[in-house]
Specification:
GO terms for molecular function: 3-oxo-5-alpha-steroid 4-dehydrogenase activity. By secondary structure, this protein is an alpha+beta fold. The chain folds into 3 domains: 326 residues, FAD/NAD(P)-binding domain; 134 residues, FAD/NAD(P)-binding domain, CATH 3.50.50.60; 202 residues, Succinate dehydrogenase/fumarate reductase flavoprotein, catalytic domain (Flavocytochrome C3, Chain A, domain 1, Alpha-Beta Complex), CATH 3.90.700. It contains 20 helices and 24 strands.
C-alpha cells in the first residue's frame, strides 16, 4: 500500500526534526521515517549547541559576544568547508537559532562554567566548548540543553514533541532502501537558477526499484572528482522505497526496538556486544519487513554519517581507529541513497577524533610530548585538535608531563569537575596510565623518551612560567618567590625513593636569570606578535597556550600520563557527506547541477563542521541545515495526494490504516510552547506542556 506526503524526511535526529518542523510550519504535509525509533546520534549526545553573537544566555551571564567575533573564530577553527558567506550567515543567525529552539520547547540555562572543561557538570550549562580562550574576543558559546547528565535526549524529545504538535507524521522502524526518480529528458538546471516544481508528480507505479538488504551497508562510491556527464540518466526524486515493520507482529516490533536500544547503549562502550545486538535486529527486519513506497514532492536525507560502516572508514579514513560515536544507523545509508541518485560527495576523509585532557582543568598545566621528547601543540586546545595532533605524531604516541603539584590539584578536582562518564576515564589516566620518577632522566628511561630533549622541553616551559610568575594568578607562592628572587634556593623538593636530595633538573641558568630579574624585560620565547599567540588581551606562549595556563613543572616526583590514541578509546565521528547547495540544501551532482526534489542536512551532508569540529558545532549545523532544507523543500515541492493513514492518539505515535477500519480520530495538534525571555531555571516562569511534565512530554518519553 503506497503512502504520500509533500515532504518526506529520512532520519529523525536533530536535523530531521528541524527540517520537519520548518516544512510543517510552511504548510507542507510532512512524513518522517526512521530506520529505528528516532533520536539517532542526537539522543545519545551531550546536547550541546554551539551558538553565539549575543544569545539570551550569554547576556544573562554577562558575556559580551558578537557575530563578527564568532565568525573570526570559526573561520580560523572550522576552515573552508563552507563558503565565507554561508559561515557568516550561520553566525549572524546564531542567536535567533537558539531562540527558535527555545520557542519549540528546548530549555537552556545561563549558568557559566568558570573553568576549562570538555563537558560541564550539572551546575553549569554555558561554557567555552572549543579553543576560544586563545583567540580574539573569546566567549563561551557551548550551550548545553538544561537537563541532568548527557542532555541530548531532552533536545530530541522536545523537538519531536514540537513536530508532532504541528501535525508531522512519524513512521518508525522503516528504512529507506532507495530513492524513486523520474527519467530525465534534459540535464538539470544549475543550482544557482532554481527550477519551478512540476504541476503534478507522476505515479509511483511507473518506476521500478530494486531494494537492498539492511544487514550489510553498501559502500559509497567516491564521486569527489568524477564527472556526472552532461546527460544525466535520472531526473527528479519523486519518492522513497522503504522496508517497514509497521505490519509486522507486535513481538517483532518490540524485539527490534529493544535490540536496537541495546546496540546503542551499552553497545557504545561494548562494541562487540553492540554489533551482535544490531545483527539480531537486522535479522528481524529482513524476515518481517515489507516493502512500502512513499510518494514525495521532495525528500530530505538526514540519516547521519558513516562511522559505523567499516568498509567506508577503511576506504576514506583508514588512519582513524577509535570509539565510534553514534548509532548503528550511522552506516552511510543516507549518503549511499544520494550517491546512487548521482550526488557528489566531499570531505569523506574528515573525521573528528577526540583526546580530552580536561576535566580536571589542572591538567592543562602539563606539557604534551611525543616519544622524541618534543612538545608539539597547545595543551589547552579542543580535544579534536589534540586528537588530530597526536594522530600525526610517530606511532600516534603522546604523554602529558606533570609534576607533583599539578597531580595533587587534579586529584582534588576529580569529583567536583566531572560527571559519571568522565570520572572513571580520568581516574584511569591518573593511576593506571601514569608512570612516575624522582627525576626527568629516570622517567624518560622508563618510558623510552629521549631524556636530553625532554629536559630541554621542560626547561623552555619553566622559563616561560617563571617569567610570568608574579603576574600569573594561578602561580603558587613558591613560584612567585622564586620569580621575584627572594626564594630561588628555598623551593622544597618532594622526596621520592633514594633520590630525596636530587636537584631540580629543570631550572637552567636562563631560568635563574629570569627569576632574579636580570632579564625582566626579555620577551617570552617564541611569542608571535600579531598571530594566534597574541590575541588582544590573551597573551600566549610559542604554541598558542594562554600564559595564564602555563605552570612550572618543578616538584618531583614527575609523572607521564599516557594519552596515546591506543592507550584508551578515542571517540570519533565522520564529518563529510553529500554536496549541497549552501543556499537551499539541495543535493548537487559532481558537476554542481542539482538533483531536483532531493535535499540533505546534518552529517549526511557537507556542513559548517565538515572541515573541523568543536563541541556543539555538529548539533548547531543540524539545526541550521535542517531548517534550511525544510524551508526550501516545502516551498518548491508539488502538492501530494491525501494521505491514507493518520496518527492515532494512543500515548505514542502509531498507524491507523484505512483498510483495517480503524476509525479513531487523530488528536487536535498541540501548540508548541513559546518560551519567555526568562531563564529556564526561573521558578517564576509559567509552566507549559512542552517545558514541564505534562502529558505531551510523557507521551514523548514513552515513545
Amino acid at each position: 500500500m503506497d503512502e504520500s506526503a509533500t515532504v518526506v524526511v529520512v532520519g529523525f535526529g536533530a536535523a530531521g526534526a528541524c527540517a520537519a518542523i520548518e516544512a510543517a510550519e510552511a504548510g507542507a504535509d510532512v512524513l518522517v521515517i526512521d530506520r529505528f525509533t528516532g533520536g539517532g546520534a542526537t539522543a545519545i549526545s551531550g546536547g550541546v549547541v554551539y551558538a553565539g553573537g549575543g544569545t539570551r544566555q550569554q547576556r544573562a551571564a554577562g558575556v559580551t559576544d558578537s557575530p563578527s567575533a564568532m565568525y573570526a573564530y570559526l573561520r580560523h577553527e572550522a576552515g573552508d568547508a563552507v563558503s565565507p558567506a554561508t559561515l557568516r550567515r550561520f553566525c549572524d543567525e546564531s542567536a535567533d537559532m537558539l531562540a527558535w529552539l527555545e520557542d519549540h520547547g528546548v530549555p537552556f540555562d545561563a549558568r557559566l562554567c568558570p573553568y576549562k572543561t570538555s563537558y560541564p557538570t550539572n551546575r553549569h550549562y554555558l561554557y567555552q566548548s572549543g579553543s576560544e580562550h586563545a583567540h580574539p574576543d573569546p566567549a563561551p558559546r557551548g550551550h548545553r540543553v538544561h537537563a541532568p547528565g548527557t542532555s541530548g535526549g531532552t533536545l530530541h524529545t522536545r523537538l519531536a514533541t514540537a513536530a508532532r504538535a504541528l501535525g508531522v507524521r512519524f513512521l518508525p522502524q522503516t528504512e529507506a532502501v532507495s530513492l524513486i526518480l523520474t527519467p530525465a529528458s534534459a540535464p538539470s538546471a544549475p543550482s544557482s537558477a532554481p527550477s519551478a516544481p512540476p504541476s503534478a508528480p507522476p505515479p509511483l507505479e511507473s518506476f521500478a526499484v530494486e531494494p537492498s538488504s539492511t544487514a550489510e551497508p553498501s559502500p559509497v562510491p567516491q564521486r569527489e572528482t568524477a564527472a556526472a556527464g552532461a546527460d544525466h540518466a535520472e531526473g527528479r526524486v519523486v519518492g522513497v522505497e522503504c522496508r517497514t515493520l509497521r505490519d509486522a507482529p507486535a513481538w517483532a516490533r518490540f524485539a527490534h526496538r529493544r535490540l536496537h536500544r541495546w546496540s546503542v547503549k551499552p553497545g557504545l562502550y561494548l562494541p562487540g556486544f553492540g554489533r551482535a545486538m544490531h545483527r539480531l535486529a537486522a535479522r528481524i527486519d529482513n524476515r518481517h519487513g515489507r516493502t512500502l513506497r512513499i510518494h514525495a514532492g521532495a525528500v530530505v536525507l538526514t540519516a547521519g554519517g558513516f562511522v559505523f560502516n567499516r568498509e567506508m572508514m577503511r576506504e576514506h579514513a583508514p588512519g582513524y581507529r577509535g570509539l565510534r560515536l553514534g548509532t548503528p544507523g550511522d552506516d552511510g545509508s543516507g549518503i549511499r541513497l544520494g550517491t546512487d541518485a548521482g550526488a557528489g560527495v566531499r570531505h569523506l576523509g574528515r573525521v573528528t577524533l577526540w583526546r580530552f585532557l580536561t576535566p580536571p582543568s589542572a591538567l592543562l598545566g602539563g606539557v604534551l610530548v611525543d616519544r622524541d621528547g618534543h612538545r608539539f601543540c597547545d595543551e589547552s586546545r579542543y580535544g579534536a585538535a589534540l586528537g588530530d595532533a597526536i594522530l600525526h605524531r610517530p606511532g600516534g604516541r603522546a604523554w602529558l608531563l606533570i609534576d607533583a603539584t599539578v597531580l595533587a590539584e587534579a586529584r582534588r578536582q576529580l569529583r567536583s569537575q566531572t560527571l559519571w562518564f568522565q570520572r572513571l576515564p580520568t581516574w584511569w589516566l591518573l593511576t593506571i596510565k601514569r608512570l612516575r620518577a624522582a627525576t626527568l632522566d629516570r622517567l624518560a628511561d622508563r618510558v623510552g623518551i629521549d631524556a636530553p630533549t625532554l629536559a630541554t622541553t621542560v626547561t623552555a616551559n619553566n622559563t616561560t612560567a617563571l617569567r610570568i610568575g608574579p603576574s600569573n594568578p594561578t602561580a603558587s607562592a613558591d613560584v612567585v618567590a622564586l620569580a621575584s628572587g627572594s626564594g630561588a634556593g628555598d623551593v622544597d623538593v618532594v622526596a621520592f625513593g633514594s633520590e630525596a636530595d636530587a636537584p631540580i633538573p629543570t631550572v637552567s641558568a636562563d631560568v635563574v636569570a629570569v627569576a632574579s630579574g636580570s632579564e625582566a624585560d626579555a620577551p617570552i620565547p617564541g611569542t608571535r606578535d600579531g598571530d594566534a599567540a597574541v590575541s588582544g588581551a590573551v597573551e600566549c606562549d610559542e604554541f598558542g597556550k594562554p600564559l595564564a595556563l602555563v605552570r612550572p613543572l618543578i616538584r618531583p616526583p614527575f609523572s607521564l600520563l599516557d594519552v596515546s590514541l591506543r592507550a584508551s578509546p578515542a571517540p570519533m565521528l565522520t564529518l563529510g557527506g553529500l554536496t549541497v547547495d549552501e543556499e537551499t540544501g539541495r543535493v548537487l551532482r559532481p558537476d554542481s547541477t542539482e538533483i531536483p526534489g532531493l535535499y540533505a542536512a546534518g552529517r549526511t551532508a557537507v556542513g559548517i563542521c565538515s572541515g573541523s569540529y568543536v563541541s556543539g558545532l555538529s548539533l548547531a549545523d543540524c539545526v541550521f541545515s535542517g531548517r534550511r532544507a525544510g524551508r526550501d523543500s516545502a516551498a518548491t515541492s508539488p502538492p501530494a495526494p491525501r494521505r491514507s493513514w493518520v496518527p492515532v492518539h494512543r500515548g505514542r505515535w502509531s498507524i491507523a490504516q484505512d483498510r483495517q477500519g480503524i476509525s479513531e480520530p487523530a488528536p487536535e495538534p498541540e501548540t508548541p510552547a513559546r518560551h519567555t525571555g526568562a531563564d529556564s531555571s526561573d521558578p517564576t516562569r509559567p509552566a507549559s506542556r512542552s517545558s514541564g511534565g505534562g502529558q505531551g512530554d510523557e507521551r514523548a518519553r514513552r515513545h
